[in-house]
Write a structure and sequence with these properties.
The complex is a heterodimer of chains A (380) and B (296).
Chain A (H helix, E strand, L loop, with lengths): L4 H10 L7 E4 L2 H11 L3 E5 L12 E4 L2 H11 L3 E2 L2 E2 L3 E5 L5 E10 L4 E7 L6 H7 L4 E6 L7 H10 L4 H20 L2 E11 L5 E3 L3 E4 L21 H8 L3 E4 L4 E5 L2 H13 L6 E4 L6 H12 L6 E8 L4 H14 L6 E7 L2 H9 L6 E3 L3 H13 L1
Parallel strand pairs in A: 14-16, 16-17, 17-18
Antiparallel strand pairs in A: 1-6, 2-3, 2-6, 4-5, 7-8, 7-10, 8-9, 10-11, 10-12, 13-15
Helix pairs in contact in A: 2-3, 5-6, 9-10, 10-11
Chain B lengths: L9 E5 L6 H12 L2 E6 L7 E2 L2 E4 L2 H8 L3 E4 L3 H13 L4 E4 L6 H14 L4 E3 L5 E4 L3 E4 L11 E6 L2 H13 L3 E7 L10 H10 L5 E7 L4 H12 L4 E6 L12 H6 L5 H10 L3 E3 L2 H14 L2
Parallel strand pairs in B: 1-2, 1-5, 2-4, 5-6, 6-7, 10-11, 10-12, 12-13, 13-14
Antiparallel strand pairs in B: 3-4, 8-9, 8-11
Helix pairs in contact in B: 3-4, 5-10, 6-7, 7-9
Classes of the chains: A alpha+beta (380), B alpha/beta (296).
């Protein structure tokens, strides 16, 4: 789960990472009162979960209340790469001597944590990574040992941060590491991390991705739940606990397992069709889950045919078959369903469905046959 | 021969109870012929559940039965501890199918295994398990889709595509030596290269079928290994050519991976390594069958 900048900053603050004084605003008036509280000049920042806000006109400096009114009015409702701005973060503007970059993430190839620190932070950090990779000081961190103060000090020296920033930066990095580990982040990134003329180091931005697998031990994450930007189809699927991503085609797809679901998208495309969605009903899906999946797809007006591709492992095909039977008795499906069922209890599952087969409920022996049939029906 | 398991492998099911997934699949594994020698549950030591003797701990099960492998399907919050318990008891192969373990827990458990228990291999988490047809099946793979006798080794990152791969070969009458599902989690205990190296060393495996998916750089690293260290032919499929791009935030991923991670980049890397790369699982099966027939 990606956090908005303001949520990321609030999360950082819990771990003692310094941020600028500021607050959220959903209206122009709220923006002004937040600005009054933070102290002028202020920065008015669009809260969207997409990069390139500044270039899109979503980040503006304001010297007084009138300028806050002007900018807040312009930014609220602004469309940034398809994300409409509904909320602002207004914070006291910092004078900047130097911009750094800092992040923690998992280094998948070596299976340890990876810290990245650079004295050349700011908007061009990805370019720095390409043109001058040595400017990014990488630090592999053994999860058993963690990041010690000592290692953090050596790291800021190696990254050649300005001498007056090093002590504060080392302390901040240890706190950011704690935020990353104890806060169960997949990514904790600060860009830019700034040094002010007054010699203070603090976070001017926050990019935090939380590991949703850890949500059971973070009840406080509930406040981050956000479906304001979500496709209504995705919202409905989420309510039913399904892993669904809306796409723009006409073949609705239901598969078990992310790999098989992706592969189903691939074969639908290769058969000349276009998928309306990605939907993985997961391992161990039962009849209820299957019925819910069909309901979600049925609610998408663009869908012309439904392709059900199941290879049972932990998922039992007889359960899936019962779900299909239940769904067709419960909901009137607008589109024909083409099924391919294999794996655990497939024989039982196919037997259950035998009496229900028709030109609206079709069984095909292979994945490719099923994809071709579903594409043909969608284009008929 | 097979890799990682064989007909002598003795399996203990961790966290067994009358309603557990572990029992359902453990009984199926047992019915397949796998030597399932017991289960563990701290609250049920001494009981017998559907013919399976239950011990209070893995250590006790190892002592009483000589178990060499364990099967974990406990919920995410207990899975990392279960992995460490098995390693401490001296289990050589841990198969963990649990989905949804926090990445921080996986990273910690993996590094503990590497440093403290170098003799233990972890397969998974979030994997379908391992099957050596006719000898041993640990996990959730349906045994009847596999065919004994070799000569193909299968390694796959995706659960259901593992079954698809087995199915494609078995239907054409091509058997498998071992089929390993390594799982798609961020910190897999066993990776492509571990399996490719084991298949390369296994005299009965003559060719390898590999199923990858988008994300990470494991396939690219595997391609490098195949180019430099493998003599046996490999056919591969990478799922997700048409997958919607993820809504990514932050720069860390891009800084680390560059252009890596897309299905196309992975397929290009595999192609360059001399692998027969297919566009879908069926074509991958066909390419593998052609390769095997060409071996004579």
């Amino acid at each position: 789960m990606d956090l908005y900048e303001y949520q990321g900053k609030q999360y950082f603050a819990r771990f003692g990472i310094p941020i600028s004084p500021g607050g959220v605003a959903d209206t122009v008036d709220e923006a002004v009162s937040q600005a009054d509280a933070a102290g002028y000049p202020v920065v008015v920042k669009a809260q969207v979960k997409v990069g390139g806000r500044g270039k899109a006109g979503g980040v503006k400096l304001a010297a007084d209340a009138d300028e806050v009114r002007l900018h807040a009015g312009n930014i609220l409702g602004l469309d940034i790469k398809g994300h409409v701005v509904k909320r602002l973060w207004v914070e006291h503007a910092s004078d900047i001597t130097k911009e750094y970059y800092a992040s923690f993430t998992l280094d998948r190839p070596s299976k340890v944590h990876l810290g990245m620190l650079s004295a050349e932070g700011g908007v061009e950090i990805e370019e720095v990574a390409v043109t001058n990779p040595d400017a990014i000081a990488m630090l592999q961190i053994d999860p058993i040992v963690g990041l010690t103060e000592e290692a953090a000090r050596a790291w800021v020296d190696r990254a050649e941060l300005d001498p007056e920033a090093r002590e504060q930066a080392a302390t901040l990095l240890v706190r950011l590491y704690h935020c990353y580990v104890e806060g169960d982040c997949d990514l904790a990134e600060i860009n830019p991390l700034i040094l002010t003329p007054a010699g203070k180091v603090h976070a001017l931005d926050a990019k935090v991705t939380l590991d949703e697998n850890a949500s059971y031990r973070h009840p406080e994450w509930e406040e981050f739940a956000d479906d304001s930007d979500v496709d209504p189809r995705e919202k409905m699927a989420k309510e039913k606990g399904l892993n669904y991503i809306g796409l723009s085609g006409t073949v609705g797809i239901i598969a078990n397992g992310a790999g098989l679901a992706m592969s189903t998208l691939d074969v639908v495309t290769q058969a000349g069709g276009e998928a309306a969605n990605f939907l993985d009903i997961g391992g161990g899906a039962n009849a209820d889950v299957m019925a819910a999946a069909l309901e979600v797809i049925n609610a998408d007006p663009a869908v012309r045919s439904i392709l059900v591709n199941i290879f049972g492992g932990i998922t039992r095909v007889d359960e899936v078959a019962n779900g299909i039977i239940e769904a067709i008795s419960r909901v009137k499906l607008r589109s024909p369903v083409v099924m391919r069922l294999d794996g655990t209890n497939a024989t039982e599952g196919r037997a259950l469905l035998a009496d229900h087969l028709s030109d609206r409920l079709i069984a095909e022996p292979t994945m490719l046959d099923a994809a071709r049939h579903a594409v043909a029906l969608a284009q008929a | 021969m097979s890799i990682f398991v064989d007909e002598t492998t003795k399996v203990v099911i961790q966290g067994i109870s009358p309603t557990s997934q572990g029992l359902f699949h453990g009984l199926r594994n047992k019915a397949y012929g796998t030597k399932v020698v017991g289960g563990t549950n701290p609250k049920r030591g001494g009981e017998t559940i559907e013919g399976i003797a239950v011990y209070a701990s893995v250590a006790e099960a190892v002592k009483e039965t000589g178990a060499t492998a364990s099967f974990i399907s406990v919920p995410p919050r207990g899975a990392a501890d279960a992995i460490i318990e098995a390693a401490e008891a001296g289990i050589a192969l841990i198969v963990c199918i649990t989905e949804g373990i926090p990445a921080q827990d996986e990273a910690l458990a993996y590094n503990r295994l590497v440093q403290e228990f170098p003799g233990t291999r972890l397969l998974g988490p979030n994997c379908p398990g391992i099957i050596s047809p006719g000898k041993c099946n640990i996990g959730i793979t349906s045994g009847d889709i596999a065919l004994a006798g070799g000569p193909v080794g299968i390694v796959s990152r995706s659960g259901t595509l593992t079954y698809q791969a087995l199915h494609e070969l078995s239907q054409q009458g091509i058997g498998q030596t071992t089929c390993v599902g390594i799982g798609g989690d961020p910190v897999p205990g066993t990776n492509f290269i571990d399996c490719l190296a084991a298949f390369e060393a296994d005299p009965e495996t003559k060719a390898v079928m590999m199923i990858g998916e988008i994300g990470g750089s494991e396939e690219e690293r595997a391609a490098e290994f195949i180019a430099t260290s493998m003599s046996k032919p490999v056919a591969a499929y990478v799922a997700g050519v048409t997958a919607p791009p993820g809504r990514k935030m932050g720069h860390a991923g891009a800084i680390i991976s560059g252009s890596q991670g897309t299905a196309q980049a992975k397929m290009d890397a595999l192609n360059a390594a001399g692998v027969a790369v297919a566009q879908n699982p069926t074509e991958c099966g066909e390419k593998m069958v052609a390769i095997v027939k060409g071996l004579g």
